[in-house]
Amino acid sequence: GRRGRSRGDLIRQRTQAQFVGRRAQLSLFAENLAKDPESEGDPAEFLFHARGVGGVGKSTLLRQWQETARRAGAVTAVVDENDVHDVQQALAELARQLAEQGGPLKEFDRAVEQFRREQEAVVSEPVAAEGEASVSSRVV
């Protein structure tokens, strides 16, 4: 019955029941969560993204994905392209959100720092004068 359920729980249940048109994306996401991330035959995806014109339900879909993932014990992070100005900011925001949920992520933090250093190195490299050949490569 209704007893013991908060008004918020009831509102969430009604909202989920009215969420239509995204069943395929929700199913794909749920199936992915059940996969073994280390499987070589059919590995799980680690990144899902949604894009499109405003008002088509992307934010609602992302909230549904987050709720599904958290129920499965996964940590999640969301970055809106309107809130960050470059890859470095996006990575820093992802690291912050993930750390809030799952503790420190040393490998991820190291990778973000390495990316930052390499970006700085690329920006500080001198530009070849017009007509001069220049080859630059970097292993990442």
Please state the average pLDDT score: 80
Number of separate strands? 0
Oligomer: single chain
SSE sequence, one letter per element: HHHHH
Could you name the ranges where pLDDT drops below 50 across 5 or more consecutive residues?
134-140
The general outline is globular
Radius of gyration: 21 Å
Strand content: under 5%
Distance between the termini: 56 Å
What number of structural domains do the residues give? 2
Q: Biggest sheet, in brief? A: none
Q: Which percent bin holds the helix content?
A: 40-55%
Structural class: mainly alpha
Textual characterization of the structure:
By secondary structure, the protein is mainly α. It folds into 2 domains: about 1-75, no CATH class; about 80-140, no CATH class. Helices cover about 50% and strands about 0% of the residues. The protein contains 5 helices and no strands. It has helices at about 5-20, 25-35, 60-70, 85-100, 105-125. It is globular. Mean pLDDT is about 80; it is low at about 135-140.
Spell out the key features of this protein.
52% helix, mainly alpha, 5 helices, 140 residues
Topology overview:
Blueprint (H helix, E strand, L loop, with lengths): L6 H12 L4 H12 L23 H14 L15 H16 L3 H19 L16
Helix pairs in contact: 2-3, 4-5
